[in-house]
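lol ok so funny story. i was supposed to be doing the assay writeup but got distracted and ended up predicting the structure for this chain instead. priorities right. anyway since i did it might as well share w the group, maybe its usefull for someone
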Amino acid sequence: MAIMSAPFLSVIIPTYNEGEGLISFVQQLFELIGHENQIIVVDAVSDDQSTNQLRSLAKVEQSLTVISAPKSRALQMNAGAKLARADYLLFLHADTLLPESAITELVRFSVSKYAWGRFDVRLDNNALQYKIISWFINKRSRLTSIATGDQGIFVRREIFEKNNGYAEQPLMEDIDLSSRLKTISQPFCISKVVTTSARKWEQEGLLKTVWLMWKLRAAYARGASPEALVKIYYKD
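and the output, tada:
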């Protein structure tokens, strides 16, 4: 049996009912990062057919792993990280697209002194108000050294493991992780943007969603439990 060499990058994608677009998303991601790198999809027992198709692809694509985990981004991403073979981990949402220069930028990170980092983000709606929201997200992240999952958080695997990965909480797991990581180093900020879905803002209302996000972050900063906040976030 041929022994596969260790990849440079392991991309970990938590999923749940992502639909028919998931398989094309993974295929496009391989074209972008190279088939020598690893993609781990961690599904929360979807009741659509998206992961069944991926499992078929994984039979011919050695660098693709598809597993199941309880429905929780933190639990899913931790489960994926345990199977990672690369020294560098990238946690990516299934509705977030990497820039074409992603690997080049991550190689720059790998030879830097930084322990972790994130991309700038752009919402996939070109209306002015969405561009403004994107600008504020990136500006706030640079000022606070805090990143959200939509920004594609990446980290050295050794650092991730030493810091016990994501806290097993139902919300704000990205805020918690970046808060801990920034005590080790400031984030390596990549100005090339990842493009993420604006569907939550579009479906639930722009101002309502902005207000909800700020309210939840402020409550979390004051010590509110993620278990209480998740009920507000998903109350609809």
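The first strand starts at residue 9 and ends at 15. The beta strands are 9-15, 38-43, 64-68, 88-91, 96-97, 116-123, 154-156, 188-196.
back to the writeup now i swear
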